[in-house]
Amino acid sequence: PSEACSAECSSYLNADKVLVNGFSCPRAGGDARAVYCCGFQDVKYCCDDPHSFFPYEHSYMWWLSVGALVGLSIAAVVLFAFIITVCVLCYLFISTKPRSKLDTGLHLQMAVAERSFCSKSTGVRSQSWSGSRHG
After folding, report:
1. What is the mean pLDDT of residues 56-74?
2. Which of 10, 44, 8, 13 is nearest to 26 (CA)?
3. Which pTM was predicted?
């Protein structure tokens, strides 16, 4: 049979500076697997993870949370500004794009495909441009 493990949580001053008496884990009526003393210097409890005691005050976690929220807020603002900038630049690019093709300055005219003339001497009708003769 395996011997039950237990840990002692020593007495401590909580956040309100009130003395909390020490206790052993697992606590009576608590989870039988919670055999380790966990928490912080000012908040202690029983748990099942041997690496869950931190030698800091609980407010330490609050400052970590505030720092994480500030960092995430700054990152969100930068991302939002980037998205707005991309949208504005896309709008400006599309709105300033010319509606018609560029004017090269060369105006194309309809070329006369066939010029016909009659020869007075032969009476043969010739067509320049097409290269064929109709009779």
Report:
1. 75
2. 8
3. 0.38
